[in-house]
Amino acid sequence: MSDAEQAERAERRCVSCGINVAGLSAASFDCPECGTGIDRCATCRKQSKLYECPSCGFRGP
To answer: I want to staple 41 with a disulfide (CB 3.0 to 4.6 A). Which of 12, 14, 27, 61 is the partner?
Structure first.
């Protein structure tokens, strides 16, 4: 893995709670409205906490 890839992984934050989302149970997906990358931690996923896209404001469970 390159230095740029490692830096990008280290900076991934849960869009719901803000913690660093390093790990296998974190989810990364594209916003259904605008395609911006969204990261969520395992805890927020399991608790179905709402998230908001930082680019377009789309909200989802």
So the answer is: 14
